[in-house]
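Notes to self, thioredoxin-dependent peroxiredoxin:
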Amino acid sequence: MPKVGEKAPLFESVTDSGEKFALSDFIGKHNIVLYFYPKDDTPGCTREACAFRDNWDLLKGYDVVVVGVSSDDIDSHKKFKQKYNLPFILVSDPDKKIRELYDAKGFILPDRVTFVIDKQGIIRHIYKSQMNPENHVKEALKTLEKIKNS
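result:
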């Protein structure tokens, strides 16, 4: 797994709207919250996504781009995003290559892990918890506050 203090691995994929996504497009411009979750529209993943949505106004204050990654296809992401009015990007990782880059594969279930990346592309925090999906946004906000004050 990439470690805190290391450069975030770069990747390209496709978003829920079918657009090309490249992490490198955001480096140097925004802080990034990159979160990996197991599956669209399942109880824990819905709670996690909705926690990010419900804290959206706070997140916006930190000049952040939030990106959710799962192996679901674009159609599934689009439906999930519309159903819960999610204001952030969902990226499809059907071949699990992005998960491999971040060593977020998991054993039985895919990992639920969040990376907070600063504007320079450096990983500032990693939070891994399968059982506490709502804590991911809280951990991200704490780290974004530290970045803002440093």
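- Strands lie at 12-15, 20-22, 31-36, 64-70, 89-92, 113-117, 123-128.
- Residues 135-149 form the longest helix (15 residues).
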